[in-house]
Amino acid sequence: MNKTIDKVPLVQVQGLKTYFYKGKGILSKVFGKGLRIVHAVDNVSFSIEAGKNFSLVGETGCGKSTVGRSILRLVEPIEGKIFFEDQNILELGKGEMQRFRRKAQIVMQDPRSSLNPRMTAGELIAEPLRIHRIKNSEREIQDEVAHLLETVRLSGDDAEKYPHEFSGGQARRIGIARALVLRPQFIVADELTSGLDVSISAAILDLMQDLQAQFKLTYMWISHDLHMVKYISDHIAIMYLGKIVEIGRAQDISEKPMHPYSQALFSAIPSVKPGQATKKIILEGEVPSPIHPPSGCTFHTRCPRKLGSICEAQIPPWLDAGDGHHISCHIPLETLRK
Amino acid sequence: MNDSLLRVRDLTVEYSTHKGIGNALDNINLDVREGQVLGLVGESGCGKTTLGLSIMRLLPRFGRVAQGEILFKERNLLDLPEKIMNKKIRGREIAMIIQDPLHALNPVFTIQTQIIDILRFHKDRLLTTQWKGKQLRNKAINMLEEVGIADPLERLTDYPFQFSGGMIQRVMVAMAFNCNPSLLIADEPTTALDVTVEAQILELLKSLVKRYGASVLYISHDLGVISEISDRVAVMYAGNIVEYADTKLLFENPAHPYTEALLRCLPGAEVRGKRLGTIPGRVPDLTERPKGCKFNPRCPHVMEICKEKAPTMLDIASDHSVACFRYENHE
Q: Given pLDDT bands bounded at 50, 70 and 90, which one contains residue A34?
C-alpha cells in the first residue's frame, strides 16, 4: 500500500503505530493483567513534499498530535517506518538522533507550558544553540538571538523578558524563534493558532509563510481549525480515531470531501456568509474510546452513510480517486464521487 | 420600540485595576428584541463578557456600574434589590450559559443534586408548589433527555468530570432552560468544543430557543458562529459597540474599519496564497485607551477628528448603524 502523494518527499511515514499502555500499576505491566492499550495512532502512512504545507486535521483525541510527536521521536512508535531524506529515523542511534534534531523541530501547542517560566526569552532561544554547540562565543549567541527576535518581529529588548510577560501571540513567536534557531528544514506546528484572536492568528500565519519563503521550510500543521487548514495547506490528511480516513490535495478535499466523516467535518464549519451555509451533517453521539476502537471501519458507529454489516466486520479498502486523493471507505468510489 | 425585551442604555462599567480606573464598557446601547438572537462579537478584552455579567448583576468586585440603565421588561435591573434579583430574575427570567461548564458546576456534587437545586429554588415558577423528591427527579430526567443525553437515569448520578466537554455543555443547556427563561445569555458556549460537537450544540440551542420562545444574547469571538446563529450583530471594540446591524448586512457590507479588518483576518480557501490582512498594533490596555475613537491608532482611514472626538452611532441604513466619522457627512 503506497500512499505517496507526489515526487520527492522530505518525510515519508509508513505504517506508523503508536500505542500507549495504561495499567493500574507495576503488576499489570508485569503480568499484563488489567492492561489497556490506547490505540493512539493505528497504521498511518503519508508523505510530505519538501517546501510544502501538509496538514493533519481531526478532532480532539484523534491522534494527530501523537503523529507529530512520533515523527520527531518525542514519543516512541511501536511499529512503522519514518523516513526523513531516505534515512529511517527510527533506526538512528543517540548521536545521529541529535544531529537529526537540528533538521526537524516542533512548535508546541501551548506556549505557556512549553516555555520554561524561569528562563528569559533570550535564554530560551539560545538554549538549542548551546546544546548543539553551534556558536562558539557568547557574543555570537547574543547576536543570533537578537537577529531571531527581529525575524519573528519581536524587538531585541524582549530578550530580557520572561514568558509570563508576553501575550499569547508573542509567546507563540518565541516558540517559533526557538524552533528556528537551529535552521531546520522541517517544522511541526502543533495547534499554532488555537486560542488566539483572529487578528493575532492572522499575523502569525502571515509570519509563518514569510519564514517558509525565507528559510525554505517544510511545514506539517496539526490543527482542528478547518478555516486555517483550508487556507494554508497544500495537502490535507483527515484523521479519525487514530487512522487517516481521507488524504489528498487541499483543494480537492476542501471543495469535495468524499469520506462521510470528512463531509460531516467540513459541513460543520460555521460560515461567515449568512444564508449561504451548506446543510450541516450533524453526527450522532461521541467519538468512541481509542482503548476499544470499533471493529471494521472505526467510524461505523456514527456514520450517516453506513452500508451494513460489512462496515462493522471489515477494515475498509484504501480507495484511489486519483491525484493522490485516497479515501478509506466501503462505499464504492463512484457513489462517493456523486 | 416596544418589542425589545432587553434594552441597555448608556451603560458604562468601570474596573479598578492596579494601574488605575478604566472603562470596561463605555456608553453601551443595545436592544435584544423579543424572540431574536443578538450576537455580540469582538476579540478578547473588548468587554463582551463584562456586558453579559452586568446584565446578570454578577460583575466582579473591582467592577462598578458608573452610569446607565439595563431595562428588562421595562424594569431597570440595576435598581432591583439583590434579593429580588436572586429569587425572581437570575436563573429564572434570565439564564446564562458560561464558557467553561466545568468551572460553573460544583465538582463534588452529582449533576442530579445541582439540577434539582435549581428546580427547588425556583419551584413556584414551575406551576406547582408541592414537588417532592421523585417528581423533581423525573423533571431532571426529562430535561436531560430533551438535551440529548443518552441514559439520563444513569447519568444523573454522575459527577461533572465524568462527562465529556460536549455532554457537560448539554447539561448546562438543560439547566439554563430549567425555568423557561425569557432571556438566555450564552457566553462562548461552544468555544472549547470540536467543530462537529459545536454543530451539535448549536443545533440543540437553536431548537430549544425556538421551542421555549426565548430571546438570546449570544457572545462569541467566532465570526462564523455569530453569523450562523444571530439575527442581528453588535461588534465590540475596546468597550464600545462600533457597529450594530442585521446579520446579513453586517457580513455583506461591513461599514466600520474594525469590522472590515476582522473579516479580512479570516483564513479560508477563498484567500489561499494571499496574505491575510493584519491589524497593526494591539488592543489598548483598559487604562490606556486612546482619546477620541478608540480604534484610531490602528485604523487605516484615520482622520484628525478621530483623535479628538469619540464618534457616536450613526444610522447608515435601516437596521445598520456604525460609530465612525467616515459616515458623518453622508446624505
A: low
Predicted TM-score of the model (pTM)? 0.88
Using the Cβ of B1 and the Cβ atoms of chain A, whether some distance falls under 8 Å is answered with: no
Domain ranges of chain B: 4-93+232-327
> Which DSSP category does A295 fall into?
S
Distance between alpha carbon A301 and the CA centroid of its chain, in Å? 25
Interface check for B188 against chain A (CB to CB < 8 A): the answer is: no
Task: Tell me which residue range forms the domain holding A243.
Answer: 9-337
**Is this complex scored with an ipTM above 0.85?**
no
Res B127 pLDDT > 60: no
Min distance B145 CA to chain A CA atoms (Å): 14
| CATH 3.90.79.10 for the B4-93+232-327 domain, yes or no | no
The residue with cell 519538501 is: A50
The pLDDT of residue A277 is above 70: no
Sheet with A79-84, edge to edge strand ranges? A36-49, A9-22, A79-84, A87-88
User: Cα–Cα distances in Å, from A336 out to A239, A246, A331, B298?
Assistant: 18, 12, 7, 48
Q: Which of residues 252-271 of B touch A (CB under 8 A)?
A: 252, 261-269, 271
CA distance A133 to A178: 15
By 3-state DSSP, what share of chain A in percent is helix, strand and coil, each rounded to 5? 35, 20, 40
CB contact under 8 A, B227 and A272: yes
What are the pLDDT digits (tens) for B221-248?
Answer: 999 999 999 999 999 999 999 999 999 9
- Kindly report the CA angle at A42 between A37 and A46, in degrees rounded to 5? 155
Sign of the Cα pseudo-torsion (B54, B58, B62, B67, in order): positive
Q: Of A199, A205, A269, which has the smallest distance from its Cβ to B195's Cβ?
A: A269
